[in-house]
Amino acid sequence: GKDGYRHYMDKELHEHPLVIGQTLRRMIDPATRRVVMPPLPFDLAAIPRATITACGSAFYAGLLGRHWLESEARLPVDVDVASELRYRDAPLSAGGLALLISQSGETADTLAALRALRAGGQHVLSVLNVPESSMARDSDMVLETVAGPEICVASTKAFTAQLSVLACLAIATGRARGTLSAEREQVLVQALLDLPGKAAELFDLRADIQHVAAIVADARDVLYLGRGAYFPVALEGALKLKEISYIHAEAYAAGEMKHGPIALIDRSVPVVAIAPSGRLFGKTASNLQEARARGGRLIAFTDAEGAAGLRGIAEALVVLPEADPFTAPILHSIAVQMLAYEVALLKGTDVDQPRNLAKSVTVE
Ligand code: M6R
Fold it and tell me: Where along the chain is the active site annotated (predicted)?
């Protein structure tokens, strides 16, 4: 049941801290504070490249997975949606890693992509929430997201569980490839262990998110912007808003704005920026300044340091707790999911069963 929550989505949003903790416990040894992967049927150190594929939110998790595998393990990674990958006839490296991501393990396109990648000689590793699914049966190895059943059609906790697994995989791969020092591993693992507590703090931001939701709910179109690890978060925020509030939302890499989408911006098109402090903050802030100069209403998800830089630009700020740049995107994805939920409440839509959507897309 809904345990007293109004919707499964609200219940599942509140399960983020628990689910992240449970998922990490499978892969982090609390005594040594190191990532311990279950034994893999292939050598992570010998993988020449990875091909990540998935659909919908799981695809966005894959984009963040690429970011971590590239930065921490220096592994070349391709990411594509399964419906494209399966027909793309992409050249694959011998002995490469196929990394499939799916909550249900039954998504038709992802399953077909899995089979194509296997036929192409790839080691098949799947990140799944249902360990007895069709995809599990066809994989060499499954890394389980311990999210429990996800009932709401819009994915929430399964997404952050996927991110938790992918972050651990990037650490393990970095260690195997010799790109990650023991000290750096300790920093990253500590950041992961801090996540459940920080995720729980996000529920204190509800009033701020409701304030932002009131601005978004009035719009017909909304633009989400983020750079680097926050671009996939922008994509996740925009998809969730579309799915449950039926408001048209598009996500762009912040640097792409001036290559077209800026033409859309006026007072009626709010811009939701995911822009915490960090290496790319200054770049994103100047893109936001440009949007502001065109009369755009700017909303920013940031942290305390970022808020100081955005105060004159943004009309509304949601200030998340400080977090290591490695894990901050996970917290921000919860925050943008919470925003979509609050907007849907204002719109009065059927949050758990949005029109035209199915929980598991088992036909092409
Ligand atoms: O079960 P899967 O993870 O393979 O499902 C993939 C997508 O269908 C799914 O993430 C979909 O985009 C959600 N409705 C997103 O909220």
Answer: 359
CA nearest neighbour of 163 among 33, 353, 16: 16
Cα–Cα–Cα angle for 12, 155, 253, nearest 5°? 125
- DSSP symbol at 228: T
Contact (Cβ atoms closer than 8 angstroms) between residue 102 and residue 206: no
pLDDT digits (tens, 9 = 90+) for 314-338: 999 999 999 999 999 999 999 999 9
Find tokens 């925003």 and name the residue: 339
For residue 199, the SS3 value is helix
The two three-digit tokens of residue 255, written as one number: 């640097």
Angle at 54 between CA 37 and CA 29, to 5 degrees: 15
With CA atoms as reference, report the closest residue to 199 among 1, 11, 19, 8: 19
- CA-nearest of 54, 177, 182 to 127 is 54
In whole angstroms, give the CA distance from residue 295 to residue 195: 36
| Catalytic residue status for 347 | no
Take atom 7 of ligand 1 and give the residue whose Cα is closest.
Answer: 56
User: Quick check: helix, strand or coil at residue 92?
Assistant: coil
- Looking at residue 202, its pLDDT comes to 98
d(CA 210, CA 340): 10
40: exposed, middle or buried (C-beta count within 10 Å: 0-12, 13-18, 19+)? middle
Please choose from 8, 52, 57 the residue to mutate so as to test ligand 1's pocket, defined by most ligand atoms within 8 A of CB. 57
Question: Which residue of the set 242, 283, 347, 359 is catalytic?
Answer: 359
Gap between the Cα atoms of 335 and 223, Å rounded: 16
Model confidence pTM above 0.90: yes
Question: Concatenated DSSP letters for 305-331?
Answer: HHHHHHTTT-SEEEEPPP--TTTHHHH
ipTM associated with this complex: 0.99
- Per DSSP, 32 falls in state T
Q: Is the dihedral of CA 330, 254, 63, 248 positive or negative?
A: positive
Residue appearing with tokens 């994103």: 284
Angstrom distance (rounded) from CA 297 to CA 279: 25
Q: What SS3 state is found at 67?
A: helix
